[in-house]
Amino acid sequence: MQTDLCTWKLVLAYDGTEFHGWQVQPGHPTVQGVLRDALARITGEDVLPQGSGRTDAGVHALGQVASFALAAPIPEANLARALNRILPAAVRVLSAARVASDFHARHSARAKTYEYRIFRGEICSPWQARYVYAWNAPLDVDAMQVATTRVLGEHDFTSFAASDDSPPDSRGNVRRLHTSQWVQEPQLLLYRVRGNGFLHHMVRNLVGTFLEVGRGNIKETEILPILESRSRERAGPTAPARGLFLVNVDYDSH
Asked: What's the pLDDT score for residue 4?
C-alpha cells in the first residue's frame, strides 16, 4: 500500500560560521546535512531537504526556506519543536508548515533579499565579529550609494559571478535587481539587495566592488562598463562571507 507524501516548507535561521555552506559535502558539516540527519532521526525517512539557494561557507541566514516530502503524519508544531531539540544550536526552525505538493523552495521562489553588514566602529566586539566585516577606514558612502543604483534592473551579472561558475539555469547570468542600496545605522553600514535570483558570490562581489568605489579605486561611473564587460577581472574583490545574511525569500503564495 502506497503512503501519501506531504510536502513541507520550513523557514530556518542559522549561524553559518561553523558550516561549509548549505549543500551536503562529504566529510564537512553543512546546514542541509544536519537538517537531513535530524529529519531521519525524527521520522525514520531518508529525505534531502531542498533549500531556496546554496549559501556559501560562513554565510548566515535569517529566513532560509527548505522543502521536502514526508510520509510521517506529524503535526506542524510538533515537527518544528522536534527539529529544534535535535538540531545544533546554530540552526533554528522558525516555522514548519504543510504546503501544496508543487511547492519547491528554489523553483517556486520569486525574489530573495540579502543584507551585508560592515562594522564602522573603532573596536568590533568579539560577540559581533563573526557577523560583520570590520572596516573603519574612510569611505565615500555617497559615491557608493550612487554605484548601487547602477546595478538596478535586469543585467548580465557575469562580472559579479564567481570566476569558476557556470550559469545555473536557462537564464544564464541574467538577473533583475529590484532594490540595491546602502543604509547607515549606528556603527554599521548595511548593503541591502533584493532580486529575482543571485549568482554564486554575486552579492559579495558587488559589495567588494562598491567598497572599491568608497576607497576611491573605482569610480561610480565605471559600474555599468564593468557590467557590460562581462569580465570578473574588471570588478572588485570578493567581500568576506561572515558579513552576509540571507534575510528572506518571497513566494507568490504558500
From this structure: 84
Supply the DSSP string of 160-208, one letter for each residue: GS-TT----STTTTEEEEEEEEEEEETTEEEEEEEES---TTHHHHHHH
What's the pTM?
0.93
Q: What is the structure's pLDDT at 1?
A: 40
Side chain identity, residue 197: G
- Give yes or no for residue 160 having a pLDDT over 70: yes
CA–CA separation, 133 and 210 (whole Å) = 14
R_g (Cα) of the chain, nearest Å: 19
Residue 81 has pLDDT above 90, yes or no: yes
Of 121, 123, 118, nearest in space to 133 by CA: 118
Q: Do 157 and 237 have their domain in common?
A: yes
Percent of the chain scoring above 90 in pLDDT:
90
Contact 138, 120 (CB under 8 A): no
CATH code (residue 80): 3.30.70.580
Chain centroid offset of residue 114 CA = 6
- The reply to whether 63 and 166 lie within a common domain is no
Catalytic residue numbers? 56
